[in-house]
């Protein structure tokens, strides 16, 4: 089993890189891939009034239930299935429904803050940081938050200024130093993605031989 960590700022293109890994690993070496999104492990804030929930800083490491994420990754590595939590951005609460996840050949842990947790980072075989220009990331954030999270442009810009950008500078950008591979220009850098895929194939082949 190979554990790949994929970090990077909001809107950097992490999802594109994840999807490319899933597609190519299935096509080329028939490896099963499971994606564990950091966003599923936000702490439940259902005890707070809605106004306070909407003002929470979701880009700070303290917003994540790292203990549960690390525990469930260890379960997968031990060959056990997990019940992955689900989280709603609309209500800022953890949902009753869980996602049943079986162990796989390749596990991808994806999220903006996944390199900030030492215990989680130490479980990773490959650490990838997806980089992109600030302007490109901002445009993707605006589009995503309006379409997927029901926000308006002003609220997105306010959040970007107050939390997204400061937290990127304080926590996410510095975590780049832990990366084994940096993918510039997000998911559009075909050469960097091909280098990454080649490394994963080698690891997967060696793991299968052991």
Total number of beta strands: 7
Can you tell me the CATH topology? Rossmann fold
> What distance separates the N and C termini?
11 Å
- In CATH terms, the superfamily is P-loop containing nucleotide triphosphate hydrolases
Helix content: 40-55%
Percent of sequence in beta strands: 15-25%
Radius of gyration: 17 Å
What are the key terms here?
210 residues, alpha/beta, Rossmann fold, 7 helices, 44% helix, 19% strand
Description:
The structure is a single chain. The chain has a single domain, classed as Rossmann fold. Helices cover 44% and strands 19% of the residues. The protein is built from seven helices and seven strands, in the order βαβααβββαβααβα. The strands form two sheets. It has a five-stranded parallel β-sheet, with helices on one face. Strand 3 and strand 4 form a beta hairpin. The longest helix has 20 residues. It is globular. The model has no long low-confidence stretch (mean pLDDT 89).
Structure at a glance:
With 210 residues, this protein is an alpha/beta fold. The protein has helices spanning 14-29, 50-54, 66-77, 118-121, 134-149, 153-172, 190-209; strands spanning 2-7, 33-37, 82-88, 93-101, 106-110, 126-130, 181-183.
